[in-house]
Amino acid sequence: MSDRNVIEAKDLSFGYGNEPIFEGVSFSVRPGDFIAIIGSNGAGKSTLLRLILGELAPSSGDLHLLGQDIRQFRDWPKIGYLPQNGLGSGADFPATVQEIVQANLFSRIGLMRFPKKEHREKTLRALELVGMKDYAGRMIGELSGGQQQRVLLARVLVNDPEIMLLDEPTNGVDARSVRSFFELLSECNREAGLTIVMVTHDIARAENHVSRVLCLEEGSLVELKKTQVEKELSQKHKHQRRPDHGNSGI
Amino acid sequence: MAILEYDFMRRAFLAGILLAVIVPCIGIIVVLKRLSMMGDALSHTSLAGVAAGLVMGINPILGAVVACIAAALGIEAIRKRIPKFSEMSIAIIMSAGIGLAGVLSGFVKNAANFNSFLFGSIVAISDFEMVLVVCISCAVLLTFLLLYKELFYIALDERSARLAGIPVKSINFIFTILTAVTVSIAARTVGALIVSSLMVVPVACGMQVGKSYQQTVLYSILFAVCFTIAGLFLSYYLRLKPGGTIVLIGVLCLVVLLLVKRVLARRTVSAVADRN
Fold first, then answer.
1. Which of the residues A139, A148, B32, B203 could staple to B27 if both were Cys, CB 3.0 to 4.6 A apart?
2. Chain-chain contact of A111 with B167 (C-beta, under 8 angstroms)
3. Domain ranges, residue B100
4. b/e burial code for range A95-132 (CB count within 10 A of at least 16 → b)
5. How many distinct structural domains can be found in chain B?
6. Which chain B residues are closer than 8 Å to A93 by Cβ?
């Protein structure tokens, strides 16, 4: 992997209708970064991910993904994405874990072609990586929220992405599963050099695993130093003891 | 077997089985995309095409195919313009289709011919219609098999399917055309008013017993074929309408499966409780 920034945003602005969400946002993501994006509800964290995914177009500014302008970017299989709320309404989808993970191998299998033994083996290897190989034949609806998130992580990893984007991946997942999920992400980042950009509310648990923390607040994005994150966390703990304070989002 | 000595019954079995294979293939994707009502909207709109065909003196099935394709594309176009209330598109097209069918049916001279499309007339299929059923069934089945994994991923998670490199827009367009063609041809056999049941009920049964997506597809087809064969036999010997009989057998089977599943689930729970 080269040393160029894998994501580069310059003076990025976006709004829904006449309502600006953020203005003049600039940031860069280097190969191997593990970034957490935090901010209060409605600050535009998920919107920022949707811009990186090419689902929304910025009203102004430049956004480059793997060195290409987002408007011309076509290498989507190099981008892994783990959505908020896992499979959502598809949690009871009548499919096995293996079928769901293997579906993401489309770019390797090809249009109108059938999966071969090598694709099935690659699927099982991805499941083994997240500790879900024994569940390959189980229906996805039979698994717990934490297990489903691991399966979705395997679905992303099976394609050997260069960047993984996660949108609040631990929503609705129990505390124990959250801890092991972050450990797993950390392992992928350290050992496979995977670049990770994660929107999260759970910075308290993610803090020890991420390399950088970006905070999106009131339309601008700033990078927080470790000391600032710790300060914010201690303030949050104080707020939690006084229930009249609102959620700061981190 | 006496029933198979009649040419019209042999045709009915052939057409019925072919449709029983392709309708659940479309049905499973429609159901999993939470668009079960789409079959209803298209089949009702197909009646406008049938009426137009009868008024203009062209084959009513061809009229139904054209009307269904236009309706399916109309639904997609409205869905894109009103994404937050996308289900409204189905209601709008269905209302327009029924309205148009109602107006045009007033100009149809042979009302019996038009009515045969409401509840189907699988035993009165012409040579041309038989050829149409065979050709459309082969085309739908081949396309479904070739796009099997693509349709599966789009139904599961459209956004991730796009990121995986699947040409989602093109495949959705192909699927819309396949759905329209399948609905219009099935409307001739089981009837426009109940075609969506044939699309949904075997899939609902398949989902009760399937232990994977592949199994669910195979079971759905198997259920649909069994319902069709049983429906044709029963309707022949009990002098019932075949379309309605096929669907009612399906609904009865679904009710039985749901009851059996419930009893089995209760037994499992009490067995676990006993063990603890």
1. B203
2. yes
3. 2-275
4. bbbbbbbbbbbbbbbeeeeebeeebeebbbebbebbeb
5. 1
6. 32, 155-156, 213
